[in-house]
Amino acid sequence: MENASSSNAIETFELGMTYKSGKVEVPALQNVTFAVKHGEFIAVMGPSGCGKSTLLHLLGGLMQPTHGKILIDGTDISKLSDSERTAIRRSKIGYIFQRFNLLPTLTAKGNIELAKKIHGNGHLNENGVGRILRMLGLTDKIHFRPAELSGGEQQRIAIARAIINQPAIILADEPTGSLDSRNSQTVLQMLRDLNDKLGQTIVMITHDSDAASTASRVIEMKDGQILNPAIHFALSRSLKEAANSI
User: Fold this and answer.
1) CATH 3.40.830.10 fits 8-245, yes or no
2) E strand spans, the chain
């Protein structure tokens, strides 16, 4: 595995993804180049079918790109094997899904403990775990099963599960898509707090401009491409130059 120190949590270079349907090739992403700094909160915004979900899956190592590179914490994952990408995903990436994906037979605590077993012991002691649960307002819900929780509470459990091992990056897939407006605002504020208070790097995809406004920076996509790509390329280059000057 190639590994190099980087000032960026994520970098992509000329990233492209093409799906095949029989003999027909359907481009989903075309020449996507951008960077995300450590501790930055990015929203990737665009209409359905613009390629943002494909981009998130590629960043998470769930698929290999047709061409281009993806660097996660300085490691190029674009040419890794399935098992190597799985190892990167377990050690460096936490996922927040639109539909929570909690196991219904486990309590909130059980769902979080399962995530710790899958991803390893992590770096948090019991005090650190308690801090996260308090930040998310979950201390009195820890022994409840998903069916006993509201949608917003289930999403908070999903957030706790995603961050419990302090991954380098959180990938959030339409995290408010299944919530009403009140719970959506609660979850977005919690993501903002995780970024502000814990310095958590977050990439959130959304089609909702209100949700996107929570992020520090918005990347807009259309038809598999980033709008104004020169701006994001220039930012990527300036981030590197700033890191080299330190």
Assistant:
1) no
2) 8-21, 24-37, 41-45, 67-72, 75-76, 93-96, 169-173, 201-206, 217-222, 225-226
